[in-house]
Amino acid sequence: MIIPDRLSRMGRRALLSMSLKAMLSGSAIWIACHGSGRSSAAARITIDNFAFSPAMVTVAPGTEVTWRNDDDIPHSIVLTDGSDRSKALDTNDTFSHRFDKPGQYAYICGLHPHMHGDIVVR
Amino acid sequence: MNVNAMAPDRRGFLKCMSWAGSAMLWTVAAGVPRSRLITEAEAAGGDFTFAQVSDSHIGFDKPVNTNVTATFQDALRQVAMAPARPAFLIHTGDLTHLSKPGEFDTVSQLLGGTGLRSFTVPGEHDVLEENGRSYLNRYGKETRGDGWYSFDVGGVHFIGLVNVVNLQGGGLGNLGNEQLEWLERDVAHLGASTPIVVFAHIPLWMVAEDWGWGTADGARALSYLKRFGSVTVLNGHIHQVMQKVEGQVTFHTARSTAFPQGTPGQAKGPGPVAVPPGALKAYLGTTRVTLVRSDAALAIVDHTLAE
Fold it and tell me: What pTM value is reported for the model?
């Protein structure tokens, strides 16, 4: 899924209104309003220089997490519980997964498994 | 350019003999503590020579190298024009960048154009679709499992291993139990004097663990080869030449024909490295290996594309 720039700008505005707690935790979280008027949460993780950033993200249940590959080399997202995996993401490609249930979800890059990150849903 | 100092150990012996341009010439006398200078002409006098190319990444188009097809062609031309025409070609993986059918087609066309028989193993970039099905459909015909196999040429036993499938959270290359059991059986009948050449994409030895440059169960594979007098391990993946001798085992990684990558301990990460304009070919290259039957040694010579 490609995230349009418009959504990105909305996300940045929404970021300002995020709770102090979330900001202190350092998580990059978007609260974006979609056209339907229904609110949903989104979080974004970038892949740069063979690392996920941020490597740990805490989100609320129902959040859609989107990874974007900013590297010159393809990467992929593999949830280690086996529930989902992306195709190889070339430069600027994105992949999204919605996390509905609370818990901690570890993931790796399927091409470079020394790259790893965690999504905490609570 | 500095020659890396490599201290001889008790059983094996390796010495960097000279640099000719940017090509390194060295001899390995496995199990016999002596070495000699091998010139190109002497190498050509060996029983046979084979060439290794690696990491062609066909499909890569980033600024570091916007024409990887051309540099791969240069590499293959260099191989084909070698003083000792190689008996065959080994490609140690990452033939393609994204496992796309068109990329595989280009690779097959270019390899076929050399007129040499080629043997391949997949890199992680070749198994991105359907668990490597598009690789196996083209290159898996006489292989087992995910594409491993062995063959014999000129009294040397060659083993192609696959360590890029089902990579796990440990961060390293992985051979897996099925392949390791096959390997143990594959070499069981061989005499200890048979020279062994193992080739696989990710280094079987630990080059840089925090970058994933090693194989988790590589040591178990090597344990099955301990009893052999000459074992040469050829890898790719890291896009630079590195060598190590451990007992009778010589480890060697080849340059890429596409782009250089960072050096462990120096670069921030293992990604592509931009080089000054005009200098790219000094960072790309091929490897030629010659069997020298007189002392059961393999001479490995690296050549950059700038030569």
Answer: 0.79
Rounded (10°) CA dihedral B290, B294, B296, B302: -20
Alpha carbon distance B218, B161 (integer Å): 10
Computed from CA positions of residues A35, A36, A39, A40, in that sequence, does the dihedral angle turn out positive or negative? Answer: negative
Residue B5 lies in a domain: no
Q: Residues of B near A (CB-CB distance < 8 A)?
A: 62, 64, 97-99, 124-125, 128-129, 167-172, 209-212, 268-272
Minimum-distance CB partner of A114 among B97, B124, B171: B171
- E runs forming strands in A5-115: 29-33, 39-47, 52-53, 56-59, 63-69, 78-79, 94-99, 103-108
Summarised one tens digit per residue, pLDDT across range B75-91 is 888 888 877 778 888 99
Number of domains, chain B: 1
Q: Does residue B56 belong to any structural domain of this protein?
A: yes
What average pLDDT does the segment B85-113 reach?
Answer: 93
| ipTM for the whole complex | 0.74
Cα(A110)–Cα(B297) distance, rounded to whole angstroms?
38
